[in-house]
Amino acid sequence: MTMRRECLALWLCLTLVAMPALADEKPTAPQAAIPATAKASMETMQIPSHGGLMNALVYVAAGEGPHPVVILLHGFPGNERNLDLAQDMRRAGWDVLFFNYRGSWGSSGDFSFAHAIEDVASAIGYLRDPGNAKRLRADPSRIVLVGHSMGGFMAVQGAAADPAIKGIAMISGADFAQMFGQLKGTKPEAVKAMAAGLAKEGMAPLSGCTPESLAQQVADHAATWSFLAKVDTLKSRPAFVITSDDGLAPADNAFADALKKSGDTRVTTLHLPTDHAYSDQRTELSAALLKWLAAVK
Predict the structure, then answer these.
(1) Is 73 helix (H, G, I), strand (E, B) or coil?
(2) What is the pLDDT of residues 282-291, one digit of tens each?
C-alpha cells in the first residue's frame, strides 16, 4: 500500500507541474478545410481509341486546380506500373493519368507498338476534352509524358507528334528501333532475334499479337521510330533521361547528348545503380522526378 500511495503522490506532482505549461499553450490555428468537391480522389474510366476501349484511371490532386497532368506510360508488357510514383506526383499537385494500351491487361482491341502510339494520342485527346478536363480539375495545356521502358519509347513518339506536350521523362527508355539496328544478320534473322527477346519479357497480358508480329513492326518502322530521328521535333522542350544498370543507358545517353547538341538547354540526366524496375531506388527515383516536374510546371 505504501508503494501505491507513493506512486499516486508522484503522479499528482507531475500533473500539477505540467498543468501551468499546458495552460500557457496557445491553440493551433485550424487549417482551412478543403471542400469535399476538391479533395484528392481517383477517377476510373475507359478511354476510346480507334474502336477499342482502354482501361484507365486518374489520380486527381487535391485543390480546385486546374492541375498540370502527367500521363504515366507503362512498359512491355507492363508488370511495373509505377503507381507509387503516381501517388507521389498527386501529392505534389499533379493529376496523373494511367492507362493500359489496347490489347493489354484487359483493354479491348489488339496490342501493337503502332496501336500504342495511337493510344497515347487518344489519351492526350481525352484530357483535352473540355468536359473531361473540368471533371478532373486538369489543365490540358500542361501535359507531361513520363514513361518507363517501352513507356519511354511511347513518350518520345507521343511528344514528337504533339508539339503542345510540355516535356518528357524517360525511365530506362527502350529504343526498339536502335535495338533492332544493333542485331546482326539478315533482316529476317534480326526479326527472329528480336521476337525471341520480346517473348522472354512475357506476352500473357497482351492480346492480338505475337512476338514475331511486334518484331516485324519494329523492322518496318526502324528508320522513323528511333529516338535520334525525333531529336529535331523535341529539342525545344524539357527532357529528363533516367538510366540504370539494365543495359539501356548507352542508347538513352546518346539521345540525351543529341538533344543537347541540337541546342536543347533543358536536358537533365540521372543514373541510378539499380535494375530495370528500379527496385531498390524507388525513393530516389520519385524525388528526382518530383524535382524535375517542379521545374517544368
Answers:
(1) strand
(2) 999 999 999 9
Helix (H) or strand (E) holding 194: helix 187-201
Length of the chain: 297
Helix, strand or coil, per DSSP, at residue 214: helix
Tell me the C-alpha distance between 20 and 172, whole Å. 59
For residues 105 and 80, is the Cβ–Cβ distance under 8 A?
no
What pTM was estimated for this model as a whole?
0.88
**CA 151, CA 25: separation in Å to the nearest integer?**
53
Domains of the chain, start order: 41-176+224-296 (3.40.50.1820)
| Alpha-carbon span 269 to 239, nearest angstrom | 8
Query: Is residue 26 very low, low, confident or very high in pLDDT (cuts 50, 70, 90)?
Result: low
Are residues 115 and 50 in contact, defined by beta-carbon separation less than 8 angstroms?
Answer: yes
**242, 282 Cβ separation under 8 angstroms:** no
Contact 68, 89 (CB under 8 A): no
Rounded to whole angstroms, how far apart are CA atoms 143 and 68?
6
